[in-house]
Design goal:
Layout lengths: L2 H32 L2 E2 L5 E2 L4 H44 L15 H36 L1
Antiparallel strand pairs: 1-2
């Protein structure tokens, strides 16, 4: 397998994990909603310990959106920067020999790693949300048995 194929495989796994993290965050919020109680004024009240779970799930969803927004901003800025460079090169070469729009340019590892870092923390936030949720469910099950 070519080295670029391994990168493609990695991107497929991160895309699948990202979708799974999003679904698990929504599912976690739904499970917490099932166990809500009603307060004195009729407002929903979360059982003790589940507020942290909801906070982690909400953080994961915010990071999910943030990953796409930050990725778009990085790629847009990168594209614009190289577009201006290509324009300057074309002006220096003269009208007959412009820099090609299809020329290959490489993005630095640091820029790509920003979105990878956000992805990592998104997955960690989902896992962190399930810890108090599973502990609560385990305790509720033990009390019921």
């Amino acid at each position: 397998m070519a080295l670029r194929d391994y990168n493609t495989e990695m991107e497929d796994y991160t895309r699948l994990a990202s979708g799974a993290a999003r679904q698990l965050a929504f599912a976690g919020i739904a499970v917490v909603w099932v166990f809500r109680a009603t307060g004195e004024n009729g407002a929903p009240v979360l059982p003790k310990g589940l507020a942290l779970a909801v906070l982690c799930f909400a953080l994961a969803l915010a990071l999910d959106l943030g990953q796409y927004v930050v990725g778009w901003l990085i790629y847009k800025a990168f594209h614009r920067r190289h577009e201006k460079v290509a324009q300057r090169v074309g002006e220096q070469r003269g009208a007959g020999e412009r820099a090609k729009y299809e020329d290959s340019v490489e993005m630095g590892v640091v820029l790509a790693n920003v979105t990878h870092g956000i992805w990592f923390f998104k997955v960690v936030a989902v896992l962190a949300g399930y810890f108090p949720l599973v502990c609560y469910l385990w305790g509720a099950w033990r009390r019921a048995v």
